[in-house]
Here is the input.
Amino acid sequence: MKSSVIALGRQFGSGGREIGKRLAENWGIPCYDRELIALAAQKAQLREELFSGKEEKAANPWLFTGIYEGGPQVRKGQPAEDILFELQSQVILELAQAGPCIIVGRCADVVLRSAGIPVVGLFVCAPFADRVSRRMAVEGIGQKEAEDAVRKIDKQRKKYYDTYTGRNWGAPDNYDFCINSSVRGIEGTAEMIASWVKLL
Here is the structure.
């Protein structure tokens, strides 16, 4: 494999996070997802709750909460979303340089490539109806609520990725490998990705 770092993008409800965790367990390497928020807060000497609700969201330039505390890593007065993106990007670079890992979301593919670090970019997708059904089963919610959640989170992730990278979230030409998780399920998709990565 030409790269020991995998950046895994995913549509909401596609099971991308679970697939990343499964791959990491099988390979015996760490998988970073929500842990990146805590690591970013620690790096900035900030309270983690300042980033509550800011995960994978782009800042609103007209309506935002500025942060005026923290260590020298923090650009005081900037939106919490911008600060979180900058700090997570620094953490992602450090983790990738430390050894093999999987990083879920957070524009990791572009962050790493921009720094000249080899990375395999994956994108996990699934039909809308399947993603809705999955959220209904996982969260125990109704269809309308699940549909609204899938649309909302996908919209947020697209705006986040497009804003901070200047690229188009989910566009196949941005990734090395795109896969529909509905075809083989979580375990089968993880197996297919593992087989493909071995060929690199």
The chain has a mean pLDDT of 90.
